[in-house]
Structure formats: structure tokens, C-alpha cells
Amino acid sequence: MIHRLQRIVQEVNRAPDIDHALVLITGSLIQDLSADACTIFLADKNEPNLLVLKACEGLNPEIIGKVKRKLDQGLVGTIAARAEAMNLLDAPRHKKFMLVPDSGEVEFPIYLGVPIIAHREVLGVISIQRAENAFNEDEEAYLTTLAAQLATSIERAESQGRFSTEQTTHMIKGVAGAPGMAIGQAMVLNRGVNLESVPDKKTTDIEGELSSFREAVRKVCEELTEQGEKMRASLPEEECALFLAYAQMLSGGSLIDDTEKSIAAGNWAPSSWRDTVEQHAYVFTQMEDRYLAERANDIRDLGLRVLRKLMLEQSLYLDFPDQTILVGDEVTATDLADVPLDCLSGIVSAHGSSSSHVAILAHALGVPAVMGVPNLPVKQLDGVKLVVDGYNGSAFINPDNSVLDEYSKYLEEEAAIEQDLLGLKNQSAVTLDQRQVTLLVNSGLMSDHTPSLRSGAEGVGLYRTEIPFQIRDRFPSEEEQYLIYKDVLDTFKGMPVVLRTLDVGGDKPLSYFPIDEANPFLGWRGVRITLDHPEIFVTQVRAMIRANVGVNNLEILLPMISGKAELVESLVLINRVRDEIEEELGETIWLPKIGAMIEVPSAVYQIEDICSMVDFVSIGTNDLTQYLLAVDRNNENVADLYSSLHPAVLKAMCQIVEGAALSTTPVSVCGELAGDPLGVMALLGMGIDSLSMSVGSLLRAKKVIMSFSHAELIEMLQRALSMSDAFMIREMYAGKLDQRGLGGLIRAGK
Ligand code: PEP
Ligand code: MG
User: Fold this and answer.
1) Is the overall model pTM greater than 0.85, yes or no?
2) Residues 321 and 363 in one domain
3) Which of 112, 183, 235, 652 is the Cys-Cys partner for 239 at CB 3.0 to 4.6 Å?
4) Tens digit of pLDDT for each residue in 379-394?
């Protein structure tokens, strides 16, 4: 059963449009469940309470598009209204039954209908009917499972179909990833290189596309022949023959001819190749013979090989528009590195959320990002005009003049706000009642420190050292690390620079140190890895302490501390490194201040113990929120539940502040909440007076600090703590910001 289900879902996902997808479903169901008829009703997008018959098999096809049911009307409307299956032995005798004249359905009184539900919304109803033999429990379970699995596919196919047929403005909604707005042109990068995500593109350079296609095919043919020859020594003859058979398929025939025809019709080579491969693979999947059906995978494998070569050639000629909006299924930090920074205006990603590292990077670069957009029609977006609103997590595809005018006005207003904020650069961050706040920057994502210095930052509150590790293909040597750390310590001479020891694992993988875990955020991460590999830790700390000689502004921060033992072990190693360097250099080496990140709930409850062992603590609100609320920071499906202003997170932070106060251990905050204007208000209310944030947030945070008194922020926090959910708290703080005329700091427009 599982195979049948998988096959239908895969085929539906590959169908070119929603109509083909529905025909596939009705056909497969009639066959798999020996039914006589199958119908699919889908909710009308303009009138969601109306269900329209979109596909039928086994009944009179003339009725498609003509039969409509309101919620609670007829069997279909009742299933949709109750969001519940209906299994009937004699449908015409049910009180809700409504006959569809001339449909032929009276001949099939045995009826089973199930709702199709995605994201809590009823998208439609699938029904099957028979002349005799009741539908048993297994069949009901099968149809229910299929409907649940198909819901997302149907939702996606519908949304993409709507997008391609309507050239009007199409609004998409995701999660606010990084603040700001942009108007620009979409660029779809296909780094992961898979057939499904190749974007559609038209070309006028038919000769150029033909020649890069032929070149890619030639190279793959050559490689396959070579591999076949090489394998001869170690593999049986029939296995080697596969390589040669692949090469043969590329030497002419319909795979090549059909692709060339599509290119000649004006499509670029990758999408022409994708379509040909999919069509050929589809023919194989339909074959009854299991062996032949499996050959579909060979075709796709071959397809991928040629595609990789093709994309490699294409990426050499990438021409980035001046206002590039990077679009992808999963935009990654490395994708960002591919775009010249002066062209990068925005990011739209189908996956991820506001605390994904790519969103944090976008924030640091001052680029608006919309993350986690369900059903983003990625393939159709390349070259399309987009408006990105990173404040509320929405974007407009093909914006019409009214949207463009509105956002052009917002952009002007934002430019005025930015200009105004520049005036605060050299002023200190003090509340109206003269409470001083230290503003620091989060760094490590970029090598250029000039913007941080220009923004008036008073030091670096969090330097994420993992980035230099991630962009290499091996661990950086002590000397390489020394130079990187020295650069930042020298640049901020006289100001504190907090270097965090390596925090990889979770969503920050190292290509050369693969970790395969079912649950990476709860697994081998941060200090857990570096304590298991003291050679990595010691090399890093040596580089840090050596770089600090003569500047003395280093502070070391330990990530993912979950208990005292990790601190004890880390401190032993750090002290040992200090002693070694002292001996090597023959001079006194000061032990830098050592801090612990408080980002794991167990650390909150041990705050007094932890504070007794360190010089400072820094709250990582990104992870603290994820672990306290049990909400994956990267998962768009639960992004609505992720909020650092959740009352539980605020209460945990109050507990940290109170615990640390007992030993007068300084507390700062370096998670994204520290740069969110509403977060600034809440954190100051707790008595926190050191905030570290993306450079782009610094002047906005300063403006907020200078606009309120500490006394009123304490009062607001008391109100927040009495509220029961994050939304109410956000609204309360946003309202206060609006009252001061500062709404433009958190949304588009003044
Ligand atoms: C945090 O968790 O809040 C933090 C600052 O660290 P990172 O986002 O790098 O995990
Ligand atoms: Mg963290």
C-alpha cells in the first residue's frame, strides 16, 4: 500500500499542472481501489465556501465544472463542513444526498468521500463510488491517507497554476525574515542542482543554448565511457555495461532530439532537458513491468549528470540584475556569497524562518528577507519583477502600478528615516531618564568591519567564528585563525570584542566534518563538539589568545552551555592554553574574560552556579526561544509559534537577570531580539543594559532607547508579563512605539 501511495504522490508532484494532477489521481484511485467512479471537488479560491467539481472518472465528463456545492450542501458540502469522512452503503438514501442529473451516479450507490485538508483549511473533497461491495476500513484508511498526503501537492499545483495563468499581481505570504523593503528582479539560483527546481526561462540565443547543451552531453558521454572502462577491472561486465548504455542514450535518439526541439522553440537548455527527461521517465513509470518501471530512475540519474554540467556552464555566465532578489527553495548562506553585494536587494525563500542563519546574515547585510513561503512558484519566478516586504513577510509577484507606487513611497520614507537615524551615530544610547545602554554589534558573517565602526558600535558583542570554518574545505589552521581574530581585535582596539568558540552542528554544518543525526539541534552542537575534540578547541583558543597579545580586548564566549561540567572542562583547557602561550612567549598573558551563552533552558535554572564560574553571560535568544518553546527555529511550518516575545521566554530572561544579579555578573543579549525595536523595549524593562545586534539594527535600537524612560519600560514589562500570549505582547509594545511616532521602525512606511 505504501508503494502505491508513494507512486501516486510522486506522479502528482511531477504533473505539469493541476488538471493533469487531478486526472492522475482519479485514474489511479479507480484502479487501486477497484472503484467505478471517482470525483474531486475543490474549493473555489474566490469563494472558499463553494466547492466545484474539477475532475471525474467513471461518470459523465460533461458535468465537470458545472456541479457546485456550498458548505453543508449535499454529501460533498457536508464532508467539507464537518472535515470528516463519510462511508455510505446507499448514498441516494442519505438525507443530504443531492442528485446530479445525467451524471450516471445513481448506478453507484456505495459511496466513500474524504476531505482534503492543508494548513487547517479544507481544500476539497475526494469521493469514490461503486455499484456493489462496501468500502472496508482499509480502503477508507487508504483514501484518508492519500488525501492527507496529496493536500500539499494539490495546494502547490493549484497555486502555481493560478500564478502562471494570471499575469496580474500575486501576493505571497511567508515569515518576516529580515526587515526592510525592496523592488527588484527575481534571480533563481539552482545550486542544489536537481531537475525539479530548474526554473523556466526563455532564450533568444538558440545557437548558444544548443551548443552548451551539446557540450554538456559530450562531456557526460566522455565521462561515462571512461568510467565504464575503469570499472571493468573491478565490476562484473553487466554492471559496466550500464555506463555504456547510458552513454549510448546520449549519443542520439529522442532524449537529445526532443530537447533540441524545445530549445529551438525558444526555451533555455536546462528546462528543455528537464522536460524531456521527465517525459521519458514518466513513460517508464507507467510500465507494469517492475524492472522497466525502475528504469525511470536511470533516466533521471542520467538527467542529473547532464544537468550538473549544464548548470556549471550556465553559472559562469550569470548576469545579476542591479536589484537582484535572490529566490530559491532553500536560499543558503553560500548562495548569498555568489551575488555581488551591491546587486543584492532582497531574498525570498520557500523554506526557513526568521532565525535561520541565512536570515540573520541577510539582516547583517541590511537586505530584506521573506522566508518560509509555502508553495512558492520558484520555477516560474526567474526574471520576474518582485516587491519584497521583509517587515511583514510578504512579497508581490508582478506588482501592478498601485503596489509599485505604494512601495516606492515607503522606500522614500524609509530613506528619510535612515537619514534621520544617522544623526544619532555619535550620541550615546541613554533613556529619557538617563539610563545608559551599551550597544554592540554581532559580527563574523562579514569580513568588512567598516559599517560596524561607522554605526557607532561600542564593540563586538558576538563574533560568530563558525563562518570562516564553514567557507573552507578543511579546518582553518591556527595561523589562519590568528590572522582573522587579530584583524577584528585590532579594528576594535580599546573596545571589547567577544569571540565565540566554534558553534557548529544544528543548521551550521561543516562539509569536511559531516555529522549525520536525526535531531541535529538536540545533538552534537557547539561546545559539545569542541569538548569532544579538544584539538579543535585548543587550536582555536590558542589563536584567540595569541591574537589578543598587545591589544587586550578579547573576551571568550562559550556556546550551548547546558551545565557546570562543560564550563569546568572549557575553563581547564583555556587556562592550559594561557599557561602554554605564557611559557612560549616568556611574558605575562592575561586571561581574557570568559562568558557563557545562556541559550539552553537548563542553563537558565543553573544561572547562579554558572555565574559563579564566569565573568559574564550572554543570552542567545534565538536558541533559547527554540528550546524553551520546542519550536525548530528553521521550520516554516511552526514559524507562527516561534516568538522571542513569548511570555515564557520573557519570564526565563527575567530569571536569568535576577540570578546573575546575585553575583553582579554582567548580562548582555546577543540573539536577534536584541536588535528588534520591540525586543529592545522588553529587555531594557528587565534591567539589561548591554545589547549586541546586527549592524543595521543599531541606530534603530538607539532611537527606541532614547525615546522612552527606563521607568516606563519597567512598567510595560510588568504588563507584558501578565499577558498570556506573544501576539498580545507584541501588539502592546507596537502600540507604545506607534504612540511615540516610531511605527516606521518596525513596518513599511512611516
Ligand atoms: C542565539 O542562539 O541567540 C545566538 C546568538 O546564536 P546563534 O544564532 O548563532 O545560534
Ligand atoms: Mg545560538
Assistant:
1) no
2) yes
3) 235
4) 788 889 999 999 999 9
